[in-house]
Amino acid sequence: YPITPNVVFALSDKFNDLYPYIMENLVLMKIKTDYFYRNNYEIDFIEEYNEKIKAIEIKKTDRDLKQLKLFTKKYDNVEPLMVTYDKEIHDDIDIMPLWKFLLQ
Predict the structure, then answer these.
(1) What is the pTM of this model?
(2) Contact 77, 55 (CB under 8 A)
(3) Dihedral sign of CA atoms 88, 94, 96, 102 in order
(4) What DSSP line would sit under 9-51, residue for residue?
(5) 29 Cβ contact list (under 8 Å, min separation 6)
(6) Residue 72 per-residue DSSP state
(7) Most buried among 25, 38, 78, 83, by the most CB within 10 A?
């Protein structure tokens, strides 16, 4: 991950292609965790707090919840969260827009 998304903006003219990576970088700077999960599928960030696990997936859209569903079936005490560009849904898996996540 680059130290700041500004470097990416300055070096690229393909913002739409890089936007998911920039979203991941902004979330990483907010939560400051080094953990992720990769075993046949990937969870972008794993954050531990109060004996619970927050599994965070970063996606431009909310169309693919498969990874979070698999992870919550495999482990107990998981709070799944998907951070998207602009969607907000509160259900078994919370979906939150990036701007709102960053303001927490």
Answers:
(1) 0.79
(2) no
(3) positive
(4) HHH-S-HHHHHHHHHHHHHHHHH---EEEESSSEEEEEEEETT
(5) none
(6) H
(7) 83
| DSSP run (H or E) holding 94 | strand 94-97
Give the closest residue to 15 by CA, choosing from 65, 63, 95, 85.
85
The predicted structure's pLDDT at residue 85: 87
Q: Which residue has the tokens 């599928």?
A: 41
Tokens matching residue 52: 């619970």
Full strand arrangement of the beta sheet holding 94-97 = 35-38, 42-49, 52-58, 78-84, 94-97
Pair 77, 53: CB distance under 8 Å: yes
pLDDT given for residue 65 in this prediction:
87
Ranges under pLDDT 70 in the chain? 1-16
As a whole number of angstroms, the distance between CA 90 and CA 69 comes to: 15
Encoded tokens for 47: 């954050």
Report CA 47 to chain centroid distance, whole Å: 11
